[in-house]
């Protein structure tokens, strides 16, 4: 190793002997053995080659780290003391280049070298030569300012000893301060003190003050160099360095940690500390009031004040700031936290639960999910004291686990629930969008003088490179394999073209040989980050990113994704195979989307429909890199341009020319995954506001005279209204029975439900705050109209809305007055009966209606409709009622009451009742919404008799009922929930009449995607009604549906497992106990707790392809929205946090909590374990009741528990137990308010 050969003045040692006078001899005595010459040779060879290639310093740092790993002396890991010596010795000053300084800073930032060791080596070499090397002195001052507080712990072993020896040898700490044995902590304290003293001496000398300093570090070194030939520039740089040194002193001495270290010197070495005070007091002497110090007097005063503060510090804890101590108890990397509880990754469980909860259909966030995710990870990064690399890694791993739960291995669970598309949207669109503002914030910090963008962007790059360590999470689902291979092929093509010197990087011409490449989810993640400028295409050159590819000349294997889109941009018509190819292939860029948008609005009818279907196809569901732009365009298509200036003025003629486009868009948006993607982007309220004028307009138009029944391929007024109306009601809970709107004892709703009023309020708030969706602004997605939308602007929709609420609140016969709706109802009933070849069912007028529940309100005769109260002509009885949709909806409740009453009085069979309902839905699909509302309300009232599901009149579930129940019990027992048999053997199953009718109607629906918009409206309500009735009701409905849809069997079982939690509190408590046990691990003394699956995997599971893979955490997230008494959750979670805190600390102490007081286990380790318990408790609490349960926790649960503690039991309670309980409660309250 090359050292400077300048001489060192003879120093007097305590034993009276003098030290050797040369730098080399001093290092022989004091410094640790030099690194092997081979290491220095290899490192400098890598540095030289990297600098010649123009590699970024970060890439060079990675290559240098590999040299250390392959060192002949063995890999001692990082931080590496030998590497620090090599870098600093060559930097001072044989290779004093900007690249070497950047490389050194990268090594310090990424913990390849220990920062304090580097600062010590630099101080001993640069400070004596600061006059000759002012640039190096300035850069070393900047490193001292940045890294003077970077004294994190180093794992005990040879590395720590080598670092301590190197710091001691460079700064001569043991000789200067007469310390016989110097350990790691002592070296840090003395290094900080020595650095401050040295910089003060430098300031004195540089400002020409006559203070005599005997420090060889300050006085040594040549006074002149080639730099002096630069004239004024050199003098100015030296003068500014003196000012910067004083600024650095003031900055580091103002830090609390530094002041505490100075206080340790003051207590243990008062004579040494007095020398520091003498230097500072020397400045205050009147004779030194020179002009040279006038400009820095304020800095000197602050420096003196900071040192004085260190004298007056006290170690008494400040009880008022106890929360600060809670947050600063250390990271989760300590060995106890890794062996007991959830481990290090457990502190990020909130992210996994947040993502999984976002996949729940009943969850509707007021804004975009990525905005909430950005806020969440920023908060967790601060709380967990994590680096940005660790934070980004936790974020990506959570998203990868989210995908693997439904995409790994076998076929996922089949049913009407968000599937892979929604989860891939979270991974490849929502997560990158959540990172964008973090890097932008880092860029602003960098512009203000920090290095935020460098550190955050490099942390993201390092994180993405580290994802290769998790191959099981990177395995792509079967339906995404081709897309992943295409991404890998794109990277391989880019690298190939770059090496070949081609100008068309990444392009694959049609006459080029096909290249096969195997890709995984990492390739898709990297492409998503490149598309949003989070990283650049240098990622293609990462080691191992592009695997060796197979090149083939077979033209049949050529796969070029851009081919159909290239044909489209060249003017090919949107017909036949091209349209199918464009619907199945995501758009490569925004330019194609804009052209499609123009065709959808201004093309021919065929072009409008084709362009709309293409926009709502793969570009919407799988165009992850541009998905936010597709969402923006699709939402705008729901509000086509109008001739009138006011889109809600009531003019309906402007919509007629867009019927085919609207029909295509609405039919494509009806799918479950598409609706959920819109929810993730936070545009549900904007979609609702766009649907309302469509419903108002098309609901006011009568269908054509030739209309007979709804046809999926026919575009009519009824079909468009049904699409828009059912889409609108799916966005909120329109059928909520009265019992679900109960007011709790706190004066508010038990759980906030999404209503149409709330959606409009969210949308109008969007407008007021200008929270729209710009192309370059990730906080928004589209420009909202300048006007607010209110339901009063749509009178017909408003009338239905209030009638629907009245139908939920009261029986029809008690509310209605004589009006034309009865005549319309009679026309509908006549149509139904004629198609069934039955006699007429007639709705009676209100004068003959009885207000008593269950009284007949209809008659059935074989005569004409003249018996009806309405005067309906004979001609009108022979044709279907071709009336506007709003008039039809207004009459449907009377039709339903007439049908149920006819069955109840034996005038209609169950088969005819079901057939009549299905005929009504076929003729007017929008009636499904009113059917759902009416039956849900009637089920709640309980005024109808139960019917036997015996297979004679109503379908029988007896064939699989008991098997179905046993499987539910088996699934629940797998997650630690045990229930009793709920249905007595030997008795025919029964259901309330409205529930039986609703269930029988749903069984008639098809299971294809075209029926999503009707089946899902009534399906969710049926599930809610069945689980809301007595527990066996869900068993019967589930068993019936398993006979209808065998491929939905696992999904139906999964839905039925949620029913017990609506009726009983015991299963809720058992499930929460299982969640704690799965996350924290079992408590046992046989060592099984160390090998059990725990943490995030234990709680949320790895894959859910069937119910045998169901995990407690996943079941809790899916069921907590159905809990009838969320307040009960707060009490149970609080009790479990206290209970598990004691259990885990008992196991850690291996002898009781008393050992905490006598050194059996450190209090910090116990608190670290308690923190894990509080994290899982707070996470479950927030997902179960959101802000309401947090308020309950603060105002009721915690105060009640604290006040009642002294009344429970007797005897002496250990003080250590009280301490841990206090920490557990404090952590629980703190983590529960995380956004």
Automatic annotation (TrEMBL):
Coiled coil: none
Biological process (GO), any one: regulation of phenylpropanoid metabolic process
Signal peptide start and end residues: none
Span list, region Disordered: 844-876
InterPro entries tied to this protein: MED33A/B (IPR039638)
Bias type Low complexity, positions: 844-875
A GO CC annotation given for this chain: mediator complex
Protein name, entry field: Mediator of RNA polymerase II transcription subunit 33A
